[in-house]
Amino acid sequence: MVVIQREEIELIEYEEVFVERDYLSPEEGEFIWNNYGKQISVNFPSPVTEGQWGFTNQGWAGYIPVNKGLLFNLRPKVPIQNIFRMLEYAWDLLKLIPSRHDYIQCNNLKDFFNLLAKLLADKILQRGRRGYLKSYQDEYRRLSYISGRLDLNEHMKTPWNPYFYCHYQECTPDIEDNQILLWTLYIIIHSGICNAETLRVVHQAFRSLHKMVQLQPFRSKDCLNRSYHRLNLDYQPMHNLCWFFLEYSGPQIIKGEHRMIPFTLYLPTLFEAFVARWLKENLPVELDIKEQEKVYLGENGEIKFVIDIVIYDHYTGKALYVLDTKYKLDEKMSSGDFAQVATYALAKDCMDAALVYPGDAGHEMDAVIKGIRVRYLSFPLDGDLNEAGERFLNNLLEKKQFSKYYSLGSLKQLNL
Q1: Which of 172, 192, 220 is the endpoint of a domain?
Q2: Are 153 and 16 part of one and the same domain?
Q3: Is residue 21 part of a domain?
Q4: How many domains does one find in the chain?
């Protein structure tokens, strides 16, 4: 049983931590349960918990500020440097950092958050010194002079009024490209985990933008699939950083509220994206990969499966492997997991299925049901990820003849 002091509660994945009843007020406990029950399992004081509060991290990494005096530090069992490497593969995020040495110096996610927040603020300030992007926007206002096209019908309704209803265009920086940046800075400021130096730079960037741009809420998906050209090409890396902060921050808050916003990474999702991206970069060229493939069954497609990873033969288009990632540490394959991936393979007419776990490679499972082979494969996260990935790929492909020396990973290593 762990009993700790107030200010910060460290929660390691799936390990319950207990604190005394007086540590939290009932209102604080209910607030955590209502708002962050997905990230933290809450056991209220009872005879079962010996009158204490019990908290369990449900597979997340990051920080959840409850108030100015209390912060939950959600710590993964995976080494923090490997979390950064997984992010690098999964989201291409760390390519935005000028030097890999910068994030190697990060000891925790708070340092990493500050590194990216300061990087975004610096990029915004650099752009501001050159001038923020402007665009012509349609306006319709009453003016003391005629500009653009006069709305004669409206004007004739009140001919005694000295002001004119006009349709015109105005060149303004108050456009979506800049509004996304401003909203992200607002989210960062309210995160409650920035250090003083980062907060100073972020505030400076926020003030620079807010002079000419209105604050409006955005979602992470608003940062994706945007159009870039010669004049706004430097906005693309900034929007990529904005996506990261908006995707992993908590629910958007309404202007005027001052509650701090959490920053959390869901490790099962990160593991799934990392494995898929690693395979995409390292599979032999004869193989193609498709992520999050949807399969519909039934007369009207009322049953839907979403398969994590399907690997196809590039030339025939036949599904060769169906993979389902399971972020379960130190656990063996369950019967439910087995049935799930076997059903996926059956739906894709594929004879080779595998469940991919980050746990110990000592766990083994290799079974056949109705001609479908189902295996347990391990992609360990506690050591060198590239070495672990090579072992995983070799176990997956076994001795099948693919272009070993001309896989994407090999070409990358040869700088070709």
Answers
A1: 172
A2: no
A3: yes
A4: 4
Taking every pair of C-alpha atoms in the chain, what is the biggest distance, in angstroms? 89
**Strand, helix or coil for residue 185:** helix
Give the pLDDT score at 360. 66
Cα–Cα distance, 188 to 102 (Å, whole number): 20
Cα(190)–Cα(254) distance, integer angstroms: 12
pLDDT of residue 409: 47
Question: Domain residues for 392?
Answer: 283-413
Q: How far is CA 203 from the centre of its chain?
A: 24
Is there a contact between 64 and 262 (Cβ–Cβ < 8 Å)? yes
Angle 66-72-77 from CA coordinates, rounded to 5°: 160
Task: Give percent of the chain above pLDDT 90.
Answer: 46
For residue 410, pLDDT beyond 60: no
What beta strand segments (E) does 177-271 contain?
263-266
Q: What does the alpha-carbon distance between residue 380 and residue 375 come to, in Å, rounded to a whole number?
A: 16
What residues contact residue 209 under an 8 Å CB cut-off, 6+ apart? Answer: 124, 128, 132, 178, 181, 182, 185
Residue 58 covered by a domain: yes
